[in-house]
Fold this sequence. Notes:
Blueprint: H1 9-19, E1 28-31, E2 40-44, E3 49-54, H2 67-77, E4 87-91, H3 94-97, E5 101-105, H4 122-141, H5 158-173, H6 179-190, E6 199-201, E7 210-212, E8 219-222, E9 229-231, H7 233-240, H8 248-251, H9 259-262, H10 267-278, H11 286-310, H12 318-323, H13 325-338
Antiparallel strand pairs: 1-2, 2-3, 3-5, 4-5, 6-9, 7-8
Helix pairs in contact: 4-10, 5-6, 5-11, 6-13, 7-11, 11-13
Amino acid sequence: MAGNDELALDRIERWLGAHVAGFRGPVTAERFAGGQSNPTYRLRSGSDDYVLRKKPPGPLLPSAHAVDREFRVMRALAATAVAVPRVFALCEDDAVTGSAFYVMEHLDGRIFWDQRLSGIPPGERGEIFASMNRVIADLHSVDYAALGLADFGRPGNYMARQIARWSRQYRASETVQQPAMDALIDWLPAHLPPEGAPAIVHGDYRMDNLVFHQTEPRVIGVLDWELSTIGDPLADFAYHCLTWRVTPELFRGLAGIDFRALGIPNETEYVAAYCRHTGRGPIANWEFYLVYSLFRLAAILQGIARRAIDGTAASADAVATGATAIPMGEQAWALARSLG
Length: 340
């Protein structure tokens, strides 16, 4: 963790006292290390530990860093089977510490960065994956309108809008010509599957965005809801399942491992479990969703590559991370060509 950076602790302490039941000072803060686009801090106080997540300071794009949306969706999901941290209060007054923020509970659990789960007994690995699968299935099964989230996104034409969005994002950050990405920008809109029933989508459902119980193989909290909206749950699930299509070296994936020896389900088994949990039949256009997800990830990585060149990347390993945009796009195009 880093220091408390720009937090005004005296004002934060007064605000917590007025808005968080049972709060007692004094408060200290440490910023979590990592690539979060919304600065995130662990607050220690006389009453408890909390997490504060805020918008970055300075001018921002209108829809970016929407901590109010994160707060809203987690508060709504608290009444469901989806494991989310308890959120306490939202502050939209920039005078407190320079930008909007919210405060939630600090979950004392485990975060796994390597999905091969080294150091975990093989029998427990399968249970960890089963819990992760159950939670995303629970999320996609929620009646979002009943939770007051009917206006949380625009479900209609979701995939077409997402493809257009990530195509624009890629073009805006393009550094060298990538024929694979050029081809995908044409191929994806021409191969759109029929639109299914919408659901709440997380947008970045990965193992390292989950908190697991300290001793039990189960998810106790889903973090980082910045990209959540109402959309196609199969796009959300396919992006999550890129784990099985990319190698550990390319992007913390599982491709090429011995699944049986490690006690980890293979892709077919994992997808089948999701279909059982959500009551779906076999997914007819699964490979299309994987092409889209690889393309989307390549566009995200290209954005990191652009920021590394411009000198604005937050992460020290941005150059190496950004360099993976090319092989990721090539993998997406190879899969698309295999579909005819």
